[in-house]
Amino acid sequence: MKNRDEILAGAGVNTRLAHAGNDPADYYGFVNPPVVHASTVLFPNAATMENRGQKYTYGTRGTPTTDALCAAIDELEGSAGTIFVPSGLAAVTVPFLAYLSAGDHALVVDSVYHPTRHFCDTMLKRLGVTVDYYDPMIGAGIEALIKPNTKLVHTEAPGSNTFEMQDIPAIAAVAHKHGAVVTMDNTWATPLYFRPLDFGVDVSIHAATKYPAGHSDVLFGTVSANAAHWEQLHDTQITLGTCAAPDDAYQVLRGLRTMGVRLERHQQSALELARWLEGVEGVSRVLHPALSSFPGHELWKRDFKGASGIFSIVLDGGAPDRHKAKAHAFLDALGIFGLGYSWGGFECLAVHVSLSDRRVAKGPTEGPVLRLQIGLEDVKDIQADIERGLAAARAV
User: Which Gene3D superfamilies match (predicted)?
Assistant: First the structure.
């Protein structure tokens, strides 16, 4: 592509996704970059080795493959730098380790991804860091929870499983006033539909296992920081040695090329089904931020450019002792939906959500919560499958 940078700067999102990250001219015209499997890198002489006076020095510190993906992610995030780690969970835990020390205090949203909470309640506690959980709807009121030793505020919007929205700019402004780093798990929206760094977040976290990879076959995490926090993040990754595999980096870069069109389909199908489900017998509530009935809809509409393909429904549960049986009946009746914990791939998935770890944001209690990942299948087929599940649940 001639005048590549100039053209891409003003291009649409799918054009940028198709061309971001690497220039074919750098690889003899091949469209995709090479997959470089590397540990040892050779130096031409002792002086260069001593001074590390060349671009690549060891496999853990980057290769042409990871550099191509890194450039693409930085362009999408608007970040000063990005690290790659072996999973989405590592994408959360590495920045926590980067910015927190013994004696520090962190504030973490109560609707957080459960493995993040487990890390906070076990490893961070053992390392001498105290953590308090806050209501996702707290907004600027988070100031009342800030302590002199609060060093990090972690956000996630929408919230895990129940999709509560957060006023990210308000929370970030308060945190920065008190000198705290703001991190955000942005896996649901991806940088296509929300760019955290544009809204005051310092570090954007993404389980690239989900929509960037997109095919349920890669575990991968990205962490992108602004200029003020990049060096500390990068140094932490080098110290920990948490690098991602070259084949996985290549797969994620390949997935990025089609992420825009896939997300459009996920969004369209999920919204159509969510709107339909609002009027279906046996469904008490639909938890989707893009629905006007959802409590956080105005925040979503103000800050986000789109929605992805995952949301939850709350069944009419009847007596509490019947909730589990209804959830299991729904899940066991499904034929197209797989029963699996991940999401962001091409296929529909469903899971019975547990909210037993919540401390502040308790979530729905009138019935079981079922999280639905809407894949790329035809909507009429997905709808028929959900109807099978609902019929089975009503029969319990």
Answer: Aspartate Aminotransferase, domain 1, Type I PLP-dependent aspartate aminotransferase-like (Major domain)
